[in-house]
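Q&A log
Question type: sequence-to-structure
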Amino acid sequence: MWRDPYSYTLNFTGGNLVPLNGSIGLNVDIDRESDFALYRIAAIHTSPNYRVQIRDQDDRLILGGATPSVNIFGHGQWPYRLDAAKIVRRTNQIRVVLTDASGANNTVRLLFSGANLFSAPPFTIPQFVAVEPFVLTFNYGGEVTDDLPAIAANGALPGSRRTPGDSWFECYRLTLSATSVVAAAGGTLQIATNAFREWFRNPVHFALLGGCDFVGNYQGIDTPNQPHAPFAFEFNPPKLLPPSTQVSFTVADLSGAPLSCRITLHGLRRYTAEQVPG
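Response status: OK
Response body:
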């Protein structure tokens, strides 16, 4: 069994807001290529005062009752962790019904993180004999060291970087900082391998990944001075990439102003006997 880290989003936004004192249901459609193992759930919202019901397409309950959001949803830096993986079969659904208790329309974004389950990896994995810590960074902004300029207001900008050519790269965590990370604005991130293999089913809001601003404030909860590094978004299992893999980033602005964003992937360089540095 090969587990490849993956996440699905579900956005109660725009025409799908949670109506004041009312309910709305939306579904996550699991891809046809693999089953999905759900490990963690995170949420950001206008108000946490709503109730949650979750079940799968076979009407099997994941939550056995209308559960207050604060009892079941974590946030980007502290997601709720299931005590065991919930396996949702390919082409099945995660069905979510939210009921408002705040007396106002509510914007809610959910992130279901886990792994796609395959019978075998898409490449042959060699025997590794040595490891070293390694960090891969990609920067959008106006500074001399940035890779690309800031993202235009309400725009999107792709960029890419290759992993080292003399080793494999195993990515364990992601950290992110940006000029705007608040739930009502901020931006979204999508990552792909070799330009087509997505790491998330849809672009993910910065706050759901735990991103902070440039002075270390996380706005997914009411806690200032919460830099992202100690509370990184985790890939579980880690994402294993062969040498010279192209990692593509697409950042989109939701703030209505130019957006600077800096993305860091944390992990290990894994060496075969032929690749070990001298």
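Response note: Residues 2-118 form a domain with the Jelly Rolls fold (CATH 2.60.120.230).
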